[in-house]
Design a protein that fits this description.
By secondary structure, this protein is α/β, with parallel strands linked by helices. It has a domain of 128 residues. It is 45% helix and 17% strand. It is built from 11 helices and 8 strands. Strands 1-2-3-4-5-6-7-8 form an 8-stranded mixed barrel, surrounded by 6 helices. Helix 6 crosses helix 7. The relative contact order is 0.13.
Amino acid sequence: MPQDMLYEQEAPKIKDLISRCGLSAVFQPVVSFESGAICGYEGLIRGPVSTSIEMPHALFAQARAEGCAIELERAAARICLKAFAGSACDGKLLLNFSAEALRRIAVDFDDALNFLKESRIDPSRIVLELTEQSIVDDVRSFMPVIAKLRATGMQLALDDYGTAHASMNLWVGLRPEVVKIDRFFIHGIASDPLKFEAVKAMQHFANASGARLVAEGIDNAEDLRVVRDMGISFGQGFYFGQPSARPLRYVADEVRQSICSARLRSTL
């Protein structure tokens, strides 16, 4: 059976989806290992259910093919902001952007600030995740863009560090407040000495630069215990919660117990 026969609906055009509000937001929790509480959420976009572009990778691939990837990024941010404001959740909201999208936000600065005011979310609660696909040829010329956004209270994160273009030169040049370690290095770290050493080096540099690390892709208690005992402060992954239209308020009791047991071992 052809792949496209697996879907019940034909994928619509991206611009049509944006204009008729055919996209939706889901949120995945980011958990503090110090408190065991949810301290923020990554906002993620979804296409229409049961279409070939329901998931973000396919959705953005089609947007790039149609020449409207930046428009989709900005629409996704607005949808996530509106849904997050409606949830009345506390904590940070992490939003994904390419370098070019951030440049355009800096140009249309007043429009972006007005939307934040309308959503009643303080800019200090926003973390801008620079996606790993972003190419920043000249870090020096990109620094004023980040400085303008930071002046509002927003913070910068490097997403999926260690893959694609999320490299050390961006970390050194942009001095992000948050660095998210790609799941490749986290998944299975409990049984992989090389992954352990790679993440240990990232932790060492984070301590030197003042960045806070988020370990992505934590799917089990074993990996959680390793990264927590290394001194990493935050985690994200299916072990804490699946992306959901209704943001989780609390992690499950057994998960919180795993976090606490890791914390106790690290202080003995």
